[in-house]
Automatic annotation (TrEMBL):
Pathway: Nucleotide-sugar biosynthesis; UDP-alpha-D-glucuronate biosynthesis; UDP-alpha-D-glucuronate from UDP-alpha-D-glucose: step 1/1. It comes from Protaetiibacter intestinalis. This is UDP-glucose 6-dehydrogenase. Transmembrane segments: none annotated. Residues 328-429 form the UDP-glucose/GDP-mannose dehydrogenase C-terminal domain.
Length: 448
């Protein structure tokens, strides 16, 4: 009874991109008063009006709902947001540096410094961004040095595992909650914040600050390794006339292996996996953990080679040169259900073929705008039909359901030649070949 009457901690979320906007909305959904802060006024203006500045299923609705309940608002004013909050989640970006594999930590540093200077009462700073191990300890010192006299501020780490495309679901129903470096008081606060998912059965793991940082990075490193592993095996399947999809189905039934993240194809991309494994390489090198460096280099190389492999398949299918060839590209996002084109393998392949003189036309159901901003010299179509009309070869690069469900008979009427490179090994090859298509996969036998 008395617990229910105690004031709930108020929450600020610093950085309202894919992670922060989702986290802010989810915290409001769990009943907290939340203010989201971003340095980008356009983003704050859009979110405040209930418009999502990027594509994420279900998030727009959740934000609108809690703008209406009054539990959620957005601002560019960090000082004001910190003044009215008790727990400050740091969700700013940690991209790869332009000139090295290391993570660019400017945004987390400036966010923590900004929170520290703005503190007017006791608070907990909770890092959620993905950072190289050792960052949180430095940020903790920064917080201690900059927080006003007489204000008790603690910094802990709570890595985030959400997937774009399933971000709302993952945030409200996480597989686990990991809390690093928390005092008893901070742990109590985190147990209150995450009471609902924990009540549903999500394990609540308390670990050291460094372990928490590394849990996130290691999880991504493992997922990346799994994808590069199956892509290496796909190369062998091609050479040995075996089928990697059937192989993955068979080994995936072993509970120790599991079928997920065993899809051979164009490989991983996006705003997380590539930069996270590179930052890990860099940090492991600094710390002298050379096995990790070598392993991650190999994973990265195998992954990048898949992009070249798909470009080579397109070249082959056009007789060795794509100069002036019409190529229809289905997909620009790094995976379905997102408009994220950061380090997207699909956009990368489309661009490589464009640079070789092909007439490339791209269609993506959600990522057309972000892709056009990233690569304005590519042509973009408004639909699948327009993208593939007259094409010498069609490339399926992002496995959106609408591409997998498309009618190969109708599409076959539009192309110049019925050849499709299924770079995700996701098409029903029998259905497409029955409609007269040659389907070329990666590590699978072509159907003609
Ligand atoms: P993002 O680029 O979409 O968002 C970052 C936001 O932070 C931007 O809106 C930017 O304007 C804002 N920002 C930068 N500096 C700021 C400051 N000082 N104060 C306030 N706002 C500031 O990036 P993201 O995809 O949301 O990723 C954020 C972090 O979360 C990264 O470390 C990433 O690795 C991690 N992460 C992302 C995902 C994901 O699926 N996107 C999943 C788990 C973890």
């Amino acid at each position: 009874e008395s617990g229910a009457d105690a004031p709930r901690p108020r929450i600020s979320v610093i950085g309202t991109g894919y992670l922060g906007a989702t986290h802010a909305a989810a915290m409001a959904e769990l009943g907290f008063d939340v203010v989201g802060v971003d340095t980008d006024p356009a983003k704050v203006e859009a979110l405040s009006a209930g418009r999502l500045p990027f594509y994420e299923p279900g998030l727009g609705e959740l934000i609108s709902e809690h703008l209406a309940t009054g539990r959620l608002r957005f601002t560019t004013d960090l000082t004001e947001a910190v003044a009215v909050s008790d727990i400050h989640f740091v969700c700013v970006g940690t991209p790869q540096q332009a000139t090295s594999h290391a993570a660019d930590l400017r945004f987390v540093e400036s966010a923590v410094a900004g929170i520290a200077r703005a503190l007017s009462h006791d608070g907990i700073v909770v890092g959620k961004s993905t950072v190289p191990v050792g960052t949180a300890a430095r940020l903790r010192e920064l917080l201690g040095a900059l927080a006003p006299e007489g204000v008790a501020a603690e910094l802990i780490w709570n890595p985030e595992f959400l997937r774009e495309g399933k971000a709302v679901e993952d945030t409200l129903h996480p597989d686990r909650v990991v809390i690093g470096g928390a005092s008893a008081a901070a742990e109590t606060a985190m147990r209150e914040v995450y009471a609902a998912p924990v009540a549903e059965g999500a394990p609540f793991l308390t670990v050291g600050l460094e372990t928490a940082e590394l849990v996130k990075v290691s999880a991504n490193a493992f997922l990346a390794t799994k994808i590069s592993f199956i892509n290496a095996i796909a190369e062998l399947c091609t050479a040995a006339d075996a089928d990697v999809t059937a192989l993955a189905d068979a080994i995936g039934l072993d509970g120790r292996i599991g079928r997920r993240f065993l899809d051979a194809g164009l490989g991983f991309g996006g705003g997380c996996l590539p930069k996270d494994i590179r930052a890990l390489m860099h940090r492991a090198g600094e710390l002298g953990a050379l096995e990790v460096v070598g392993l991650m280099q190999q994973v990265d190389e195998i992954n990048m080679a898949q992009r070249q492999r798909v470009v080579d398949l397109a070249l082959q299918s056009c007789g060795g040169s794509v100069l002036n060839a019409r190529i229809g590209v289905l997909g620009a996002a790094f995976k379905p259900l997102t408009d994220d084109v950061r380090d997207s393998p699909a956009l990368n392949v489309a661009a490589a073929l464009h640079l070789r003189g092909a007439q490339v036309t791209v269609f993506d159901p959600a990522a057309g705008d972000t892709a056009r901003r990233t690569f304005p010299t590519l042509s973009f179509a408004a639909g699948t039909e327009d993208a593939i009309r007259g094409a010498h070869v069609v490339l399926l690069l992002t496995e959106w359901a609408e591409f997998l469900d498309a009618d190969p008979v109708a599409l076959g009427e539009l192309v110049g030649r019925r050849t499709i490179i299924d770079a995700r090994n996701k098409l029903d090859a029998a259905r497409w070949s029955a409609a007269g298509w040659t389907v070329i996969g990666l590590g699978t036998r072509p159907t003609a």
